[in-house]
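Morning F.,

Quick status update on the modeling queue. The single chain you submitted on Monday has been processed. Sequence for confirmation:
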Amino acid sequence: MHYDCFQQWPHREEYVAEYNRTMGQMISGDGSQHTMQADGTITTRSVVGRT
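Structure tokens below.
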């Protein structure tokens, strides 16, 4: 989806919350975790060695 369209989408907040509830809890094989910000951008952080 285009960035501008996503910003105007009436279900954006619910989508971001659901993404983070499901995908944001997963840790990839390389030890990274992906979370979606309110504007729809996805950030990646390393969680290797964290408990």
